[in-house]
Q: What sequence folds into this?
C-alpha cells in the first residue's frame, strides 16, 4: 500500500474515532477500493467493484462510507450535469479541472497553471477572496465529434 493511501486511511481512522464510529471489514473493502481508483466513480460503480471482493456489501454501506469520506475531507462529491453523483479522492499533487463529454460522459482531468493564475488575477482585481473553485468544460470528446 502506498504511503499516501496509508496517510489517508490514518486520517479516516482518527476521524472515525472522534465520531465514535467503528471500522468494519465491509467499510475497509470500500475504502481500499476507492483509494485505488483513478476515476470519478459513482456509488453504483463502486458497489459493483466491491461486490467482486465481498458480495455481502450493500448499497447503503457504500453510501454511508462515501458520505463519511466526504465529511472528513478525503473524497469530493462531483456532479457533472447528468444527475449522477460521482466521487473522487483528493488529488495528491494539486488542483485540477475537468473536461466532460456531453455525449458519452467521458471525464478528463487537466491542470493548467496559467489558467489558475488568470483566475487569481481576476479575483484580486475584483477584490474577491477565493476560498475554493472548480472549472468544468462541457463539450464533445475527440471520439464523439
A:
Amino acid at each position: 500500500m502506498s504511503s499516501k493511501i496509508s496517510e489517508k486511511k490514518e486520517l479516516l481512522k482518527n476521524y472515525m474515532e472522534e465520531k465514535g464510529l467503528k471500522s468494519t471489514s465491509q467499510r475497509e473493502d470500500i475504502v481500499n477500493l476507492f483509494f485505488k481508483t483513478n476515476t470519478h466513480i459513482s456509488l453504483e460503480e463502486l458497489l459493483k467493484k466491491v461486490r467482486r471482493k465481498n458480495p455481502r456489501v450493500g448499497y447503503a454501506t457504500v453510501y454511508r462510507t462515501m458520505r463519511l469520506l466526504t465529511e472528513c475531507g478525503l473524497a469530493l462529491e462531483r456532479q457533472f450535469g447528468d444527475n449522477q453523483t460521482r466521487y473522487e479522492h483528493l488529488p495528491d499533487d494539486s488542483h485540477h479541472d475537468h473536461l466532460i463529454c456531453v455525449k458519452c460522459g467521458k471525464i478528463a482531468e487537466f491542470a493548467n497553471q496559467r489558467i489558475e493564475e488568470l483566475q487569481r488575477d481576476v479575483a484580486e482585481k475584483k477584490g474577491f477572496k477565493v476560498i475554493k473553485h472548480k472549472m468544468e468544460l462541457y463539450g464533445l470528446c475527440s471520439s464523439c465529434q
Summary: The helical segments are 3-19, 25-36, 43-53, 59-71, 113-125. The mean pLDDT is 86.
